[in-house]
TrEMBL record:
Lineage per the UniProt record: Bacteria, Pseudomonadati, Pseudomonadota, Gammaproteobacteria, Lysobacterales
Pfam families named among the record's database cross-references: Sigma70_ECF (PF07638)
Name this protein carries in UniProt: RNA polymerase sigma factor (TIGR02999 family)
Top-level taxonomic group: Bacteria
GO MF terms, alphabetically ordered: DNA-binding transcription factor activity
Organism for this UniProt entry: Chiayiivirga flava
RNA polymerase sigma-70 ECF-like HTH domain: residues covered: 22-181
Single Gene Ontology BP annotation: DNA-templated transcription initiation
Length: 191
């Protein structure tokens, strides 16, 4: 168990939570960078949201958390943070495309305009919010698999369940999401 955020390190006045967050970030940075890069390209994040920016934004969100319990808790929270960053980026680009009565922008300024991928992120985010009311664990599986790009094994570790449970939950969550979003569900091989 990691130290409580309310205590301070002996002698240096730094909360242990900060030290534990930095230690976890150092230990998991390569993994988080790989996941962030894959997810950024998968969802078509804009040119302004590079891999490093996604990790940095997620890290800033993680700093506001307290009481890291273990690696599992950190990974689950990192998945949620990446979801929030991707959704906020999609919302910002969507707002930018409406121009709100401002002067016309140069042609190259439209490179970050919202597209179908942004719309998909926002729709899935809203649907995951509704799913969380029905089954919080299914919503967490979607956060880990869809928004953070975790594998079954990584998701199982983050949520403290077995790989088999993750596969079962992922099938249920995907079926629910496809029904909710009005799309045809893919076959098992499309996961």
């Amino acid at each position: 168990m990691l130290p409580d955020a309310s205590a301070t390190s002996a002698g240096n006045g730094t909360p242990p939570q900060d030290a534990s967050l930095h230690a976890l970030m150092e230990a998991l940075y390569a993994d988080l960078r790989k996941v962030a890069r894959r997810e950024r390209f998968r969802v078509g994040a804009g040119a302004t949201l590079c891999t490093t920016a996604l990790i940095s934004e997620a890290w800033l969100k993680l700093q506001r958390q307290s009481g890291w319990q273990d690696r599992q808790h950190f990974l689950a929270t990192a998945a949620l943070a990446m979801r929030q960053v991707l959704v906020n980026d999609a919302l910002a680009r969507g707002a930018g495309k409406r121009n709100r009565g401002e002067a016309p922008l140069p042609l190259d300024a439209g490179l970050d305009a919202a597209d179908a991928a942004d719309e998909q992120i926002l729709q899935v985010n809203e649907a995951v919010g509704r799913l969380a009311a029905l089954s919080p664990r299914l919503a967490q599986v979607v956060e880990c698999r869809f928004f953070a790009g975790f594998s079954d094994a990584e998701t199982a570790e983050a949520l403290g369940v077995t790989d088999r449970t993750v596969r079962r939950d992922w099938l249920k969550a995907r079926a629910w999401l496809y029904r909710e979003l009005g799309e045809a569900a893919p076959s098992d091989g499309d996961a």
